[in-house]
Design brief:
Chain lengths: ~350, ~250
């Protein structure tokens, strides 16, 4: 992302559009460094994944889903002390790979996240001063005088984070004295093995399996599903902008289950002036939604499977939404659309929020 | 008036001047500026008129110097350093040596607080503010400088802006009071059940906790805000504390 100067005034979310070509997919070496794959990997915690496909290829999608394991996450009430000590710490954090997110909003409460073995704590002034672990200032520089907030990052996978070492003992002290209250966490085990006996069991977690909710046979008006030829090249920037905005709007209306995109929709133009751009073609689409606590690697894998399995002539759309951060509650999102009859091409929308 | 050396033909001043100026010039300067000028060898002071005055003056001077010698002057910084009043020798830097002091202090505090140790509150706070803290076991609970949090030890020196404590590992730590909150626990000698009350006064907060196990005695725990406590322990005895603006709260 371009480095915009952080400002104290709320700024609306920004959308970055990319129109590119996917490299050839080798099943033995799944891509992760190039766009669009790196964009999907760069998100932290995914809340919602939505896939829109034409009705004709829904069976293929079902086939993919039947072969894959259903992602699941757990909701558990623990204190930070339980996480950094005992069996949970040795089995899940040191040996395994987990992702955890605590309750709260980042600008207001004390939020803890655990990802890739790094525990990040977003604290207010009192909690930071009581904890005793050095961190970095968090927030806009100009506004920090009134209520300074702090970010503390601890790498739990490093060799110095074992009981008995000074740095780790400070963390234990902080978790006992400053963060003693149990809070609700979302927990997702990224590795395929579950340690036995499960260290999470004493805290009685609530297991939630993320099944997709499928909406079939939505009879809609279809827009132009292929980017204009003029969009490529420096002069075609305006065409690309128009095309991508209209297409994103149409996809969002389908995701919102809006009646405006349905075929045969009669709405008084005084109430709504939206019309599906295009020639007036109609078709049936199907929408699948996963909502829960998902990992970016699962999303990337899902996208890979879709690209590999679905027929190359048909279009589809894949979008992921993250959990919201901060007071305004904006979340960031990445959407991908593969145009019809243009295998390998994609249009990518990255919506980055203010925080 | 004229300082003429007998051995030389010319005065020294004329010799020096002739080095710097031509003869006519040198002579002019000598006659105009040097020869006629009187040279005072000591400050003008009226000569003692008679012996009696002189004796009187001597007596006064002696009396004043006597008085000055009796009044103690404050030590200079060098003298203080040489005396080494606050030096703790290596052999003395042991935590176990200060534990009896800590026990003494606990007894002293229990005596000061009396019955207030069970109830806590403003009365206890008022007594604690004027108490002396040498020998108290303090723990840094909250600090603007986060690396200080967790320090625990017995106070060996309570200066105006700092606490010098000795930790269990026999280390002397100098902890500034600014922006720091200290927690002190006083075990109550008696084993009655106690209630927990929390009140706040100006600069010190009192809290009481009862330990769940029967083997542990109940303790009175209070927290001291170092920011408001920046006085020497001698000065604190008669000080009336008023609540000042605190950056922490």
């Amino acid at each position: 992302m371009l480095s915009f100067p952080t400002s104290s005034v709320y700024q609306s979310s920004k959308c970055f559009v990319t129109y590119g070509v996917m490299a050839h997919l080798d099943p033995n070496q799944p891509p992760s460094k190039s766009k669009p794959w790196s964009t999907f990997d760069g998100q932290d915690f995914i809340n919602r994944v939505e896939v829109i496909v034409p009705q004709g290829i829904v069976e293929k999608v079902q086939k993919i889903l039947n072969e894959k394991a259903v992602p699941e996450y757990k909701r558990v009430v623990m204190s930070l002390h339980d996480i950094v000590s005992g069996d949970f710490y040795t089995r899940y954090i040191k040996e395994g790979d987990v992702m955890m997110l605590s309750e709260g909003r980042r600008g207001i409460d004390n939020v803890f996240t655990l990802r890739n073995g790094i525990l990040t704590m977003f604290l207010d002034k009192e909690a930071y001063e009581r904890a005793g672990i050095v961190g970095k200032p968090d927030g806009v520089k100009g506004k920090r005088g009134l209520k300074p907030r702090w970010v503390v990052e601890v790498d739990l996978t490093s060799a110095s984070m074992v009981p008995g070492k000074k740095g780790f003992d400070r963390l234990i002290y902080a978790s006992k004295n400053a963060f003693g209250t149990p809070i609700t966490w979302l927990f997702c085990n990224l590795s395929s093995t579950v340690p036995n006996p499960d260290p999470l069991a004493p805290h009685s977690p609530t297991c939630c399996a993320v099944e997709p909710s499928v909406q079939q046979n939505i009879h809609v008006m279809l827009p132009i599903l292929k980017p204009p030829v003029e969009a490529i090249g420096l002069e075609g920037r305006e065409e690309l902008e128009y095309f991508s905005t209209e297409l994103y709007e149409w996809l969002s209306l389908i995701r919102l289950q809006s009646p405006r995109v349905l075929a045969g929709d009669q709405i008084d133009p005084y109430l709504c002036r939206y019309q599906v751009p295009g020639d007036g073609l109609q078709g049936k689409v199907c929408k699948l939604t996963w909502q829960g606590f998902l990992s970016p690697s699962w999303c990337r894998q899902m996208l890979l499977d879709l690209v590999a399995e679905l027929p190359s002539k048909s279009w589809f759309s894949f979008s992921t939404t993250t959990f919201s951060k901060g007071m305004a509650g904006d979340n960031s999102e990445v959407s991908l659309f593969r145009p019809q009859e243009a295998s390998g091409e994609y249009v990518l929308w990255e919506i980055k929020s203010h925080e | 008036m004229d300082s003429q050396t007998s051995s030389k033909s010319q005065p020294i001043a004329a010799v020096l001047l002739s080095r710097a100026h031509d003869p006519d010039e040198a002579k002019r300067i000598l006659t105009e500026k040097i020869q006629q000028r009187p040279l005072f060898l000591h400050a003008t002071s009226p000569p003692p008129s008679d012996a009696r005055d002189k004796r009187r003056r001597e007596r006064e001077k002696k009396r004043l110097s006597r008085k000055k010698a009796l009044k103690p002057k404050p030590l200079s910084a060098n003298e203080r350093r040489k005396l080494g009043l606050y030096k703790v020798p290596r052999s003395g830097q042991k935590y176990v040596l200060f534990e009896p002091l800590h026990q003494l202090w606990l007894g002293y505090i229990r005596e000061i607080l009396g019955q207030e140790i069970h109830t806590g509150g403003e009365g206890a706070a008022a007594k604690l503010t004027s108490a002396d803290f040498h020998g108290a076991e303090v723990e840094v609970v909250r600090s603007g400088c986060v690396s200080r949090v967790g320090l625990k030890g017995i106070v060996i020196k309570d200066s105006r802006f700092t606490f010098e404590i000795i930790t269990r590992k026999n280390q002397r730590k100098l902890v500034p009071k600014e922006g720091t909150v200290f927690r002190i626990e006083v075990p109550v000698a008696m084993t009655q059940t106690t209630e927990t009350t929390t009140t706040q006064e100006g600069q010190s907060e009192d809290k009481k906790e009862q330990q769940p196990q029967e083997t542990e005695t109940p303790k009175m725990i209070f927290e001291v805000h170092g920011e408001q406590f920046q006085f020497r322990s001698a000065d604190r005895a008669n000080k009336k504390f008023r609540a000042h603006f605190s950056k922490i709260l």
